[in-house]
Here is the input.
Amino acid sequence: MTGTEINLNQMLTRRENRAYEQNLLLNKYNCPVISFCMNIPGPIKTNEQIKKAFDDGKNLLLEKLNDLEINNIIEIHESTGDELILSVNARAEILKNIAVNIEENFKVGRLFDIDIINTDGKKLSREIYRKCLICDNQAQECARSRRHDITEMQKAVENLLRDYNY
Here is the structure.
């Protein structure tokens, strides 16, 4: 996969900054927050193909939120990945249903990581487990057991993006 490699320190710093930005929106608007980024294994978190998939996912998400009041939007494009953070005036459960529907039904939705953070600061959990990119097992089980190596996961992402972008 081509793109700028990042290190663990950069990823952890971005994760801290993301949490800070999410908390700012939670405190300012007292509404649920949507945090959308890409689930890309390995040291390369963005490139042209990933950004296109992100932009298409972002546009679909905004389309699905069309009838809801969006208080604020933060969009980030860094070597650590593409992100969208939104404060939305709606029930968190409604937002979670929208997010899961997109993740489960969009062509590259498996690469989307759309978290819903309720006003209490807690993420809403999925009712349905995500499937692994490589096998039909639960993604969480494969990740915990390190069933697939990074090269195998990157190849699966590359194939998914290639099939999507062409």
Remarks:
- The chain has a mean pLDDT of 94.
- The first helix runs from residue 8 to 29.
